Amino acid sequence: MRLIVLWSSVILFAIAATFASGGEISLSSGVDKTDIPFEDSVNLAIMVKWRGDIQQYSFELLPLPETRNLKVIGTSSSISSATEQGQEYTTRAFKYVLRPTGSGVGVVEPIVLKYVAWPDSIPGELSTQRFEVLIAAPLPMPEKSNLPRAVLIIAVTAVLGAAIVIFILIRRRTPVLPPQKLAEEQFLEGLELTKKESQSDRKVFFTRLYKLLVNYIEAKYGIEASGKTNQMVLAALETSQFPVEQKEKFSGWLALADKEKFAPSAGTPGDIIRLYTEIESFMSKYITSNKSEEK
User: Fold this and answer.
1) What are the structural domains of the chain?
2) pTM, 2 dp
């Protein structure tokens, strides 16, 4: 039995590699456990490493894995650079925390990560392997309390009554304030003003767009970005608690705005309109989601 466990640990770690213009990029992945109690969780780690700096590759949003008897309850990511034998290497790590939803065999299907290599715009993709985790049956539920139902009902009613009285008293004393605008609403107002005032001037538009993006991530997530280089901002964004979907989008927009605000005037007004439409649509979705949660 011990030999089987050791052999399973050996094959846990799979490496899929491909080559793109300008250097090598590889992906490694693994789970930290292959046999867990139903009440435990398992971590899936994915690491992408390439030769070059942070802007050598552009990645699409990494999708959540398709699973059976498991569900994703948390994600995180980080990025770092190091020098090896005189060459700069960048490592990007992703982590998924999965919790059982049923006993038996838990399955994590392969995840495909698509990317584009710069400056030649060569597309490619990397994939993890399929992982299986043995999940034990859940522990028996504790016995129900012997507290008489009548006593429980009286206690709950008393607590609810006191809470209602306190709420009414506080409501009478608290002045009614106008609803505070969401950070996303303030961002979209600034974006609309930027579009009008730039009048298709690319440098003006992208300079103001970059400032709007920096101000948003500072106000929303407390990331200190003012006065820092774009590479420092992107690195701070990668290690933050920013939602994964927003993190991918904002990294791309920051890199584009930083590049275009210093570039010679070029392109067409349609480029600005398309980018404006993409950002406005993405942020409006978050406004709708936040207001639905408040209701």
Assistant:
1) 2-135 (2.60.40), 183-294 (no CATH)
2) 0.43
